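### Sample
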Amino acid sequence: MHGVHEESPLVEAKALVKRFGDFDAVRGIDLEVRRGEAFGFLGPNGAGKSSTMRMIASVSPRSEGELRVLGMDPSVHGPHIRARLGVVPQQDNLDVELTVRQNLQVYARYFGLSRATARAKATELLDFAQLSDRADAEVEPLSGGMKRRLTIARSLVNDPELLLLDEPTTGLDPQARHLLWDRLFRLKAQGVTLIITTHYMDEAEQLCDRLVVMDGGRIVAEGSPAGLIARYCTREVLELRFAPGEPVPEVADLADRVEVLPDRILLYTAEGEAALEAAHGRGVRPLSSLVRRGTLEDVFLHLTGRTLVD
């Protein structure tokens, strides 16, 4: 029943701060993550994403502000919260002494599952992660994508309500990333709430219902991917590439906004082809041109003055 009693957020932060000595990694952020959504933290390395995730995971105490995870205060109910979370760290920390199946079974036993339940759970999760044929293999020779899927499978042994994924696909090839995205979509369809940090725009656009863009420990924008693009970008972007050192032609009046990058000029406009024709009409001759739709990458550039991929 909506309207009368909205379900309380799974994660709620107000003026949340994380300080290391005299360095503020997180500088007073507010956010709410709702049950059943995929929520993203987007930003460059050092933006405060991982520090925020560690506070939500209840493994790193907050310095200031309020935080509720699953309705509880991590500084009081840390163990209760951790028992109901799944956490996928940036670096796979699998046990290379154990087989693929044993990694799941041993971890399930930590959560107090009986031997028989742990066995059944491992079989179910191997199937989910598409690793059944590798069940009795060593972990070490697995590909990066397989290790990532195993790490995610392992984080699910306790049937978590909330799954925290810190840069889940960094270092994976496109095929492995798409397979991982598919697995995350399935979890979401089963009602698991996802919180994902990433510095890949396409990942955020694919996976997240809502996201915040973080920069320098602050939230600089919040919304759905489509909403953010609509607010901070234009429908299309015309990219003009010129030879290094070539003078920048006068094109500012041909678009809503122009961004000059070292290797190209971006013209933000509703009609990229029309802007390209107009540029050609006044004798502008780029090495190459491209009309594409506006993306989160453009939003980030607009908000922070730099691209995300350093």
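The two ends are 46 Å apart (CA to CA). This sample (ABC transporter ATP-binding protein) is used throughout the tutorial notebook.
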